[in-house]
Write a structure and sequence with these properties.
About 50% of the residues are buried. The longest helix has 24 residues. The protein is an alpha/beta fold. It has 2 domains: about 240 residues, Aspartate Aminotransferase, domain 2 (3-Layer(aba) Sandwich), CATH 3.40.640.10; about 130 residues, Alpha-Beta Complex (Aspartate Aminotransferase, domain 1), CATH 3.90.1150. Helix 1 runs antiparallel to helix 8 and helix 2 runs parallel beside helix 8. Strand 6 and strand 7 form a beta hairpin. The strands form 4 sheets. Strands 1-9-8-5 form a 4-stranded mixed sheet. Strands 4-2-3-14 form a 4-stranded parallel sheet. A 4-stranded antiparallel sheet has the order 10-12-15-13. It is built from 13 helices and 15 strands. The structure holds pyridoxal-5'-phosphate (PLP). Pyridoxal-5'-phosphate (PLP) binds next to helix 3 and helix 4.
Amino acid sequence: MATMHLSAPSVGPLEREYLLRAFDSGWIAPVGPDLDAFERELAATTGVREAVAVASGTAALHLALELVGATAGRSVLVQSLTFVATANAVRYTGATPVFVDSHPDTWTMDPELVADYLARHREDPPAAVVPVDIFGQCADYDALREVCGAHGVPIVQDAAEALGAFHRGQPAGAQGELGVLSFNGNKIITTGGGGALLTDDPRRAARARHLATQAREPAPHYEHTEVGYNYRLGNLPAALGRAQLARLPEIVARKRAIRAQYAAFFSQVPGVDLMPEAAYGTGNAWLTVVTIDPVRCGSTAEELRMALATHGIEARAVWKPMHLQPVYAAAPALDRGVAARLFRQGLCLPSGAGLSEADVDYVIEVVAGALSRRARQLADL
Ligand SMILES: *Cc1c(COP(=O)(O)O)cnc(C)c1O
């Protein structure tokens, strides 16, 4: 049976047309007119002055952290509930990640924990604070900017999952000193693999482009005064990204409709709640995520995941928090147990923009069947 994936890319004739046009132009390199245009269009879409397109969201995070001075001996506050890339990028710089729990109302970095930490570390402040706009919901930037601003600590916004979301009417990605997007295959739009760094500071953009091209100095020969990276995005994937970006409003609208369809069903099911949508913003519904209280619902998230898997439907646990990952077991954590509970109770449901209403109905039918079977089992006990 064909598998219904969690977040399959939505690509079609427009993407094909842009890609072939770029191919025929002869610009098959990490430079070219589509790369320049993609950067301009990304900046316009997110409301920043400059976007620097790179090979991955992880590369964009690494560059952002290097730009704000993350280095060995410094700490960086990182949201614990995230994909491992956020933490790994901190480690690439040599800095120590300090993991911060989520607030239960938003699932994003708890500003109170950040305030506590910064007050206790006036002598050795972190190089950056890295909130994550998890599942396409912006972090609480009013509170985070106030706290970080008071201590002069820059915010690096991991908006890898949040392109097309809004914070107080402003597009996601522009809320920190530096913003990061991902165009991986499962993200809201894809270049087949890619990312971008967003900034209002042209000098930082120039510095990021320099570091991303092996820090080559302007000279007729190859001249290098520092260590750089090979992080630039190619012109072909950028062309694909331009087509996807043109379709962003349509993709987000479809994702939000899918979430509304799930929401209508789960509002009738005791013990199952959708991820809350914060009052300060509008999420892009990258994934529809629910939490399952096994006591009130009768089933656990893992039982539902397995029931869906037997029908060829991919569902997945919420990110396992970084402070519970073996690779980061030794890192300090500001923990109130929220992210750990979301990991235990959370389930991400198929949310690809290509899913039809009937596809989502089928997922709902399988969930409803599993829940009523479980209810009958419990009644028989
Ligand atoms: C996907 C993702 C990244 C990494 O992006 P890549 O393009 O896969 O390198 C970073 N942070 C978060 C929160 C992500 O979801």
